[in-house]
Amino acid sequence: MRLLLGSLFALIVAAVVGLGATYLALTRGAAFGPLTIGSWTAWPKNGTTDADPYVRASIARIGRLPTAVGDGVSFTAQADDNGRPLDGRCDVLIAGITPAARFWTLTLYNADGELVANSINRSGFTSQEIVRHADGAFEIVVAPRARGGNWLPTGGVERYILLLRLYDTAVGVSTKAGREVPMPSVTVKGCS
Amino acid sequence: MIRWLLLFLGGALLGGIVHLTTIIILPRMATQDAYSRLARTASINTVVPLPAPAPESATMPFMDPAFASAVCRYDLSQGPLKLSVPVSLAYTSVSFYTRYDVAYYAINDRAAGRRVIELDLMTTDQHNQMPEEEDVTAADRLIVESPTVTGLIAFRALAPEPGLMPMAQSIMAAAKCTRTEIPQAMR
After folding, report:
1. pLDDT band (50, 70, 90) for residue A160
2. What backbone phi and psi angles, to 5 degrees, belong to A168?
3. Total-model pTM
4. ipTM of the complex
5. Of A71, A115, A117, which is closest to B106 when you measure between CB atoms?
């Protein structure tokens, strides 16, 4: 009886620890070798056959196709430069320049990776659509209500994710964060 | 007391094994991964244009709305594939994924350096079976080896402005992936 009870206990511990760790790894996102610049993070290795088992599992669970390294690299931001989470009810300013790439796109998704409905049917910008300053720098305002210049509507969702994808770029697996890879700053300005 | 502590430690150790096993098995068991989602609508060895992602409906999460895209779900068991896609004015790319959604190769219009991206896709075995002379005469033929027999090819064309989307979609409509035969006599 004691043996039975003991093994049952050990098996329950194994199930809770094992499945719990798997669940946490897949929902929190555990992947090796991130490239973090400011509030932006990319995992260039995800787009290669060197992708580790955690990445493969998370890709299968989400159901997306990763950006292959020969195609480009995608940077994700979930919080601003001070660590404040991106809230669709706040004004967020994205300012600066991007690393050299033939094209880039900036897209806003909800936490599940779906586009967010809004009044002007805009879910992102491409590098050709954007209005820039004379020196090539740009400013994008991500806000729930209409703004002048480059306005990216949030549709008022509570949490969102920004994806900055660089296409045909030298940024890749061997890139280190530094001067050659300038990413735009992300700042939460104020909330309504 | 010590007996329970040992049992707990043993359980935790077993839990580590459970964790690693589930992580490794998950891609093989997944029913909502990109390949399985596309398997429902995309027939084998043909190019299927994907509808543009919209807030309420998207084929896959995190699709780039600035692109027109199409997929070819391939099966090389009957022979290699030949694929071609014309190059748009902006940016066109072809990415290759294994059955378990791992990207193993990608090429864009600039790397291809022509008006049409043309490739041959085959397994390593099929590549080895190819007669050598043909390899030489067709030196400018780009051959991609697939690590798995089945998989996905994603064709994508950028519309730099929304007004250029019809052009990008016409590029997708012109993309082809067709089965070819290995020359029998030369085997």
Report:
1. very high
2. 55, 70
3. 0.88
4. 0.86
5. A71
